[in-house]
Amino acid sequence: MKFFLNMFLIVFILFISGCSSKKLTVKALYPSKIENNKIHTIRVERFYRDDINQTVAVANKIANNIIDNQRIFELRDGDFGTDAILSGEVLNSSLNTQVYYRTEVDYSRCRFYRYDERNRTRECIEYQIRQIPCEKREYNVTTNIKLIKPITNIVIFSKTYDKSSFDDMCYDRRPYYPMYTDSRDVFRVNSQIADDIANNILDDISPHYVYYDIEIIEELDKDTLVFSKEQEKRFEKVVELIMTKNLDLAKAELEKLDSEFNGKSFEVVYNLALINEAYNQLQIANQLYNEAKTLTLNVKYLDLANYGINRTSRNLEEKIKAKSQLP
Fold this sequence. Notes:
Blueprint: H1 2-19, E1 23-30, E2 41-44, H2 54-63, E3 66-67, E4 70-71, E5 74-75, E6 84-116, E7 121-148, E8 155-170, H3 183-205, E9 208-215, H4 229-243, H5 247-260, H6 266-278, H7 282-293, H8 299-325
Parallel strand pairs: 2-5, 2-6
Antiparallel strand pairs: 1-9, 3-4, 6-7, 7-8
Helix pairs in contact: 2-3, 4-5, 5-6, 6-7, 6-8, 7-8
């Protein structure tokens, strides 16, 4: 029975893996949310009520922020020659717990037996039920920041960030002390949350990359295209090259197939668009997605092409804005 169960699980996993579509991760440069202000030099003030290293986390992210091998910010100690002052407050750093009990049969302890007089044996007919104490924990950090112009004290950006982390633990192997809070544990977890918040702050005040997982077309469509077995295998090899990030080889092979198919294969043109998008050649990718759209009536393929057109158009606009914010 166990053998058949294991075989079923293996087949199920393979089936799920086979059904999942292959994707390529591409990135797009997006601008900060600070419009009409170039911010390259920053002084970071110590955050009010900061007992979780929020100030240090933010300052470290700013100091080490590099885009395309270019450092974006310079930290300053004074206001002279400083573009902005970053101040903030940790509004909340807390742990909320909810106690509940999980029941478990304790097979080492029997409540009632059935005695067999003939064989002089006894059999347990009801075991003890254990009530195991458990805790649901919610760690929460709320931080507010303000980015202010020196001298004028004009607020050019302000936002409140709220993030939580959840944990669920049961005390079946160790004693449980209700309402006992380990301050070291709260500091450790909430400092990690503060570091995540620092990443969000950096994305808001700096140009940054956004990542997309884009579907790869894996097979040529025999219903709309005539192709040989050799061409089919070459296309399958291209998909493998894309998955392993060998984009130069994949692009060269796709260009050959595109020539052989006289530019009539949606799958070839779409994957070429995807590779150009991965190269950040957004105008070329957009043109190819538009070209691919004219080569199919397949609803799913049309959705992929339209998504590619809209995505590359938007990302091209955002890239231009982001470039203008770089030093």
